[in-house]
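Notes on consecutive records. When two proteins share a document, each keeps its own sequence and its own token line. Never mix them. Below: protein one.
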Amino acid sequence: MTPLDMSNVHIAILAGGSGTRLWPKSRTETPKQLLDLVDDEASMLQQTVQRILPLVPLERIYILTGPEHADPIAAQLPKLPEENIFIEPSPRGTAPCLGLAAMRLRQEHDGKSIMISLHADHAITREDRFRNALRAAAATARKGHLVTVGIIPTHPETGFGYIERGAPLFEEQGISIYRVVRFREKPPLKRAREFVKSGRFYWNAGYFAWTLDNLLEAFQRLLPEMYARLDTMTGRIATKSADTLWHQIHPVTIDVGIMEQARKVAVVPCDMGWSDVGSWAALYEILNKNKDGNVVLTDGEHVGMDTKNCLIHSENKLVATIGLEDMIIVSTPDALLVLSKDRAQQVGTLVEELEARGLKEYL
């Protein structure tokens, strides 16, 4: 396999999410990407950066985040150039965030340079496959495609969007690349089973690659008002007028605003041992279990009698359990969460309820 030239590849890591479904550990000031949930020695953001360093140096890695997380990110990545932390004034979805980043990069680099977009809060066990998929995505982007990396599904999942593949295009880095037929929203279980059985569908992890010129041409064609505001903002990011323009932008994701409508979209399939760590149940699935099937994450002690297939997280206190199965217990200094594992997706709704009741000190 011919080594791929990555010298003009830039990687943007989206690190602005709040991770509400991992409350009470994930909070507004310390969202999940800044926590060491998967590895005791590195946060999820630090793991993401370490994972891509074999591809590009720190000088070509950029973190996209909000003002409240810029300082903690700089502290976690002390060798990252300060100017590589791109700050958006407020959340407006991934489309304007990535569009502005692409414009800033094009000011300093050739428009044929490639931009890869990743998320800061995912877990990946097959890192070599992940990096090879990014190499293939970069090579495909060089051929003029807007590219997405599709996760080969391991089961019918209703919590993810799907990518439907069409005809094969060519091969890159030993991977067959396909034309994208359409992006599909999160399906009901019956439809998800049909998707997986067909072999034509991949989970949408939100990993993309484009040349700067091709991405911004798509913005100009598909989101012309947003493009005009971002174009005006470029070079004036710290000014009050730039903030005003930013707040006039209608929030939209890159999937909906660009990829679902774009021409010449390709997918790179990959089985990389991927998890979005989108809930406590998802975290349970990827962590090591003891002989009773329990995941115990505690600085204190856990004593369990007839306790099986549970996740127990505690900070500096004893947790004792009797007769529990398929439960989640998360104890922090100011909050305790107890729920059935199969309702883990509802923690985000619980956080909304806390906010509605004015309990913002717990968020």
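Protein two starts on the next line and is unrelated to protein one.
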Amino acid sequence: MTESTIQLRDHVFELLSAGAVFWSDQNAVVVADLHLGKDATFRSASIGVPVGSTQRTLDRLAETLEQTGATKLFILGDLFHARSSLRSETIGPWERFLVEHSEINRLLVMGNHDQHVGRLPDRWGLKVQPAEAYVNDVHLVHAPDDAERARSESNGKSLSLCGHIHPAFRMTARHETLGKLPCFWWRNSKQQLILPAFGDFTGTHAIRCEVGDQVWVMADDELIAVGRKGPSVVAATAGAKGPAR
């Protein structure tokens, strides 16, 4: 696993090639858009998809927590894909994950998919915020549009971490399209760091950068800074090995 250490205002974050952010001041891992049980939802609709995406997602999350030594987990929405995702093949791996990481404080900021899943069991020990949360003046929210609203209401003072759009960067070389890769996207004009979808079974949305933006693409186990369009407030160091914690 590689990392890029960035500074946004007074906060330092480590972007991890697993698709998560490690916030050292909070000793927290931040992820977005796990969409657990999406494969179960598809199969319930008689759409044949491979089994195992929920377990693979949770295995990667467990590895990230262990490698960073985090004591907190902040989930920026869309933990589950749909109400029909809450089947034994999804709940079993999820509850095993919770037992194995019972010492982790868990915060879920609800996303649009979570709104349709309904109330989650109290035994899961999730602290659920219906729309947003603030941690040390950092705005944790699911959708960038809601982050923009908060920034407007705070007269431009809000720094947001969000998800929702499953950002991906379209790679090109000599006018040829090489495909798109999931990415972290710093939107400088909006002061938003948008995280890639962490789930193993999710789609992506190709983004369009503006001057001052910065992008880090996820390529296998590498994290590569690309797509800088102009001066950026982000100080980035890419290519270092993952945190030894």
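For the record: Residues 229-245 have pLDDT under 50 and may be disordered.
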